[in-house]
Every structure is written in C-alpha cells, then in structure tokens.
Amino acid sequence: MIHIGRICWTVIVVAILALAWLRPMDRHARDQVDLGFQRAAVTYGTARLLHGAVSVMQGTQVNAEPAGVGATFTPGQVLDMCGLFCVTNGLQQQLVPSRSSSAPS
C-alpha cells in the first residue's frame, strides 16, 4: 500500500513539473517558429526575385552586325544555377544570424 502511494505522489509531482515547464517553453518555441517562418519567407521571396531577374537576363540577346556580318550574343547565359545558388546562399547567410549569437544565456 505504501509503495502505491509513493508511485502516485511521484506521478503527481512529475505532472506538476511538466505543466509548470510547458507554458514558458511553449511561448519560447512559438517565438522561435514565428521568427523561422519570417526568415524563410524573406529568403524564399528574395530567391524568387533573383531567379526572375536571372531568367530575364538569360533571355536577353544582343544582335550585332559588324562589317555586315550578323552575330547574336546572349551574355545572360553566363549566369547558371551555380551562380544563382552562390548569390542566394550568401544572401541567406546575411539574413539568418549565426546560432552562436542567438544561443540562450
């Protein structure tokens, strides 16, 4: 009988501790999730904007007729997905602070 009472008290104390921790942790987690969604939305929007600009530049053609000989140049074709990835990755590193600066103290 005493053993069952001890188990009940242990369960009650653990439940109270869990409920006491839940509220502050939930608020902090919600703040972090909201901040993460904000960063993701900004990064996604910026990547879409850059992708659109690169697509326009890739479709640009320059026609030249030096000495009566026609030539078409497409300077935007130099931009490929590697270049876009590097620019987007660099931008994301600027927008998202490092983990060490946002670590809880």
- Hey, roughly how much beta strand do the residues contain? 5-15%
| Poorly predicted regions | none
Number of strands: 2
The chain-level structural class is mainly alpha
Query: Can you list the strand order of the major beta sheet?
Result: 1-2
Structure description:
There is one protein chain. The chain is mostly helical. The chain has a domain at 37-96. Helices cover 69% and strands 6% of the residues. The chain has two helices and two strands. It has helices at residues 2-58, 81-95; strands at residues 62-64, 71-73. Strands 1-2 form a two-stranded antiparallel ribbon. A hairpin with a 6-residue loop joins strand 1 (62-64) and strand 2 (71-73). It is rod-shaped. The mean pLDDT is 75.
Give the helices and strands, then pairings:
Elements (H helix, E strand, L loop, with lengths): L1 H57 L3 E3 L6 E3 L7 H15 L10
Helix pairs in contact: 1-2
Features:
2 strands; two-stranded antiparallel sheet; 105 residues
What is this structure, in a nutshell?
With 105 residues, this protein is mainly alpha-helical. It has helices spanning 2-58, 81-95, and strands at 62-64, 71-73.
